[in-house]
Amino acid sequence: MAPSGSRNIRGGCRRVLYWIPVLFICLIVAWSYYAYVLQLCIETVENLGEKIVYLLAYHVLFILFVWSYWQTIFTKPMNPLKEFHLSHSDKELLEREDRGESQQEILRRISKDLPIYTRTTSGAIRYCERCHLVKPDRCHHCSVCDKCILKMDHHCPWVNNCVGFSNYKFFTLFLAYSLLYCLFITATDLQYFVQFWTAGGKAHDRLREYWNGLPDTQAKFHIMFLFFASSMFSVSLASLFAYHCWLVCKNRSTLEVFRAPAFRHGTDKNGFSLGVSKNLRQVFGDEKKYWLLPVFSSQGDGCSFPTCLVNQDPEQPASPSGHAAAKSTEGETHPFPAKPLRESQSRLLSNGQTWTDSEGPEDKDRQGTSNPALTIEKET
């Protein structure tokens, strides 16, 4: 009992420590609200019209920024559906087998009805030994969350959450609105900061008189430090936001940039790219009225994705039909039909790609043979 209790204590301490970066961001945002609204707009800005415009614009950006940050933190990452998990009997069977060929046959039998096209770099079926499941395309195991995350991009300490299929849109909007928030503060605070530091001679003396005429020294400190903080955050956020805009346009995740997804024909860094317009719709959805709002509107279910590849894996079925799998309950099963593509993917693949209802004898022969390159490989 003692070792178990100590592990629980260590785990609880780690969970508390993981919230420290989030707490730091919350304190910075709370201070910036106080400094901008009270010290700058209410106490310092004298023009009433300017004060109203500043406060209205600021609060619009502030609400969108906090809303998207909240959604990124508290949206639970989606895990693979139960169809991808091994049954108890399959797990025991897999553990008893020592030969790679036998393990290969077990995994091939389990995954033959699943919409999986990616492999490991050695050509093996992607299997997670910690979660005991066949990994869907673009799914990876997070060592921090100790779970497999659908379309995992990265684990972000600043939101204490995995960024993946369920919250990637929120994360992108969080970067966008936090950048606009910092740029707006920098631009409106600039005149008070620049005049103080660049004035010289008599102008400097006049500015000193103006500066000394501010309500108190506390307002001076907040105005100066607010500009420093917002401008520095703007630089880092601009580079990070530009990088993720590039990822969205290329339909890649951060993990796929460092390790390109592998298909039967080999690795292909652009395997999931369908063009800029369709790539944007995969993340933000078909209805543009929801693009700028932190509400979920991404396409698909996170378990399967259309590819730009002409020659799909003949041994794997097409993507599941409809969106029912994404809304499945604990006790329901949703088999994956071989054809056709689900509706959202059919819109994405509107280039005329079609499926036939019959398979030639060569395809059936191919499906009946085993691929010796497919072996179990530990992959995170």
Describe the model.
There is one protein chain. This protein is mainly alpha-helical and 380 residues long. Among the domains are: 16-77 and 165-203 and 216-290; 82-160, no CATH class. The protein has twelve helices and nine strands. The strands form four sheets. It has a three-stranded mixed beta sheet with strand order 2-1-9, with helices on one face. It has a two-stranded antiparallel sheet with strand order 3-4. Strands 5-6 form a two-stranded antiparallel sheet. β5 (154-156) and β6 form a beta hairpin. α3 packs antiparallel against α6 (168-198). The longest helix is centred in the middle third of the chain and has 34 residues, at 217-250. The radius of gyration is 27 Å and the shape is elongated. It starts with a helix and ends with a strand. The model is unreliable at 310-378 (pLDDT under 50).
